Amino acid sequence: MSMYIRVKRQKTTVFLQVEPTDTVLEVKQKLQALLDKSPDKLQLLREVREASGQWLPLDDAKKLAELKVENDDVLALAYAQEDGGFERVKILAPGAEEEADGSGDAAAKQEAKPEEQ
Per its UniProt record, what Pfam families does this chain match (predicted)? Predict the structure, then answer.
């Protein structure tokens, strides 16, 4: 039975149709066709607890069903960096602007606008 998952990175969300029997590597191969990045340069992660901000990388050999990935679940996507590691997970809300130094949550730090008189 097919299901849909959302894969998010920064301001981008990709909706994928997958099977519970698909492996994480197969999901990365589907992303490769869309993003033009090889699967070894992609890392999929899952949040430990909803809204916890803690993400765990998923094993390429595991099936989605084994990882308890269900219909409409959200996975994070990270790209490989030049140093061999992967970037931190950063998912921005629609309309949020990234700060120049890349730190903090810009959406949560919007300046209060003075009221017009």
Answer: ubiquitin
